[in-house]
């Protein structure tokens, strides 16, 4: 396969990934009358079951023993599972409670929070444009807090939880394939799902078998809805430059914002659009810096390989 073909396939996979994630508000809205806790529990259970089927069919289970022998790595996988479960739960709550636009803001803020965590946790050094982007993003967060009359908790929790999840994945490295990683994370948080389902059953608040076959099938489909975009993302990340992935990722919050406003009837006051605009300015600066840095790095590598005569 030629490099151009690999990039085309990777770009398509990335586009489909962020398109699917952008359509999640409509998908989760169809899961009513299930509440966010029940949806979270089913998402964990059915995702783990799907991963288990794939791993059994491919006879790829030995890595579980290896992971168990490395408590530190297993702990990192478990912590990643807790962060992604928090992200899933808060996002589902946002959709079902009519806060899709606030959730979209969280994913706009995510790249800025990721950069900030890199400085605080990994002691990374930022370029000047990155500092400007983070500063503008901080001003936007303060402005939106004043406008909401409270901190935009949904946005902040989504941004911080996913950025923390990404940081852990970075620290864990590529020792686990996407399907192994997802299986390990959902296995670690399976007790949470079991406790939630038992608790809801004891209260008579489960909807799994009480609202017809279509509703049951939709809850079962949360496993596919979780795994497919992640596997597409893995395919994209291995085929296209990071700069392309960075640009494609903004498709998800844009679609979520449009869905919230145009399809789900959420209202965004004019004053709040100002805060969104600040975040977009910060993202524009961050994207410009990223693209410029990638181009300079490529040019430098070409100069090393092909020195001028």
TrEMBL record:
NCBIfam families in the record: rarD (TIGR00688)
Keyword terms of this UniProt record: Cell membrane, Membrane, Transmembrane, Transmembrane helix, Transport
Subcellular location: Cell membrane
Phylogenetic lineage: Bacteria, Bacillati, Actinomycetota, Actinomycetes, Micrococcales
Topology with respect to the bilayer: Multi-pass membrane protein
Residue span, EamA domain: 10-144
Protein name: EamA family transporter RarD
Stored SUPFAM superfamilies: Multidrug resistance efflux transporter EmrE
Family: Belongs to the EamA transporter family.
Transmembrane portions of the chain: 12-28, 40-57, 77-98, 104-122, 129-146, 152-170, 182-202, 208-233, 245-264, 270-291
InterPro entries: EamA_dom, EmrE-like, RarD
Protein species of origin: Ornithinimicrobium kibberense
């Amino acid at each position: 396969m030629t490099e151009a073909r690999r990039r085309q396939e990777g770009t398509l996979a990335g586009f489909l990934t962020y398109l699917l994630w952008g359509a999640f508000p409509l998908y989760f809205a169809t899961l009513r009358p299930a509440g966010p806790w029940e949806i979270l529990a089913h998402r964990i259970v059915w995702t783990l079951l799907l991963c288990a089927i794939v791993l059994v069919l491919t006879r790829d289970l030995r890595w579980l023993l290896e992971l168990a022998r490395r408590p530190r790595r297993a702990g990192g996988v478990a912590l990643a599972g807790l962060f992604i479960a928090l992200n899933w739960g808060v996002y589902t709550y946002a959709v079902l409670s009519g806060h899709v636009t606030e959730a979209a803001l969280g994913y706009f803020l995510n790249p800025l929070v990721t950069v900030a965590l890199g400085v605080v946790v990994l002691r990374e050094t930022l370029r000047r444009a990155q500092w400007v982007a983070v500063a503008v993003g901080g001003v936007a967060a303060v402005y939106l807090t004043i406008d909401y009359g409270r901190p935009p908790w949904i946005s902040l929790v989504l941004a911080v939880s996913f950025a923390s999840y990404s940081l852990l994945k970075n620290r864990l490295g590529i020792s686990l394939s996407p399907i192994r990683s997802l299986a390990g994370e959902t296995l670690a948080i399976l007790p949470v799902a079991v406790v939630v389902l038992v608790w809801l059953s004891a209260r008579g608040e489960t909807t799994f078998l009480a609202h017809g076959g279509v509703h049951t099938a939709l809850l079962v489909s949360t496993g596919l809805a979780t795994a497919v975009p992640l596997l597409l993302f893995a395919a994209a990340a291995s085929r296209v430059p990071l700069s392309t992935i960075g640009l494609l990722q903004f498709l998800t919050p844009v679609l979520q914002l449009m869905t919230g406003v145009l399809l789900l009837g959420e209202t965004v006051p004019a004053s709040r659009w100002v805060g969104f605009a600040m975040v977009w300015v910060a993202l524009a600066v961050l994207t410009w810096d990223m693209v410029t840095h990638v181009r300079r790095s490529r040019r430098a590598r070409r100069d090393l390989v092909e020195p001028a005569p």
